[in-house]
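Render this sequence as a predicted structure.
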Amino acid sequence: MNLQNGDDDKMTKFKKHLGEGKEIEIGEEKFIIKPLTTDEAPLFFKFMKLFDGKNMDLSKMDGDVSAAFTKILNSTLQKSFPEEWKENVEEVKQFGLRYMMELFEAILDINIPKSEENKGNIEEMKQRLAPKQ
């Protein structure tokens, strides 16, 4: 990003609080998963309706929630892998489907507000989402 007239300093003050994403490992490959933005907040909150405290209630999974999940996953893939998305979007989407649980664990980890109260709930949700080994 080429910012002029001191805009670099303005961007830095926000960026230093965001982090660069979360590194995940799939096989022997490492991937950086980028956080969502406020544009995806309504979709993220819609998906979070599945969680009742610490538990995932799949009876709440309907077409709207499923569509929200898909949009969140695709948006995350597009932000995390912009070049690959441009070159071969279908392959990236297939990757997203194949590794959706690992990806969504990272999505939860980097997008849920961090507080002491949420920390235990987040860990329990991630354990429930984790693929069985």
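Summary. The two ends are 41 Å apart (CA to CA). The CA atoms of residues 90 and 96 lie 10 Å apart.
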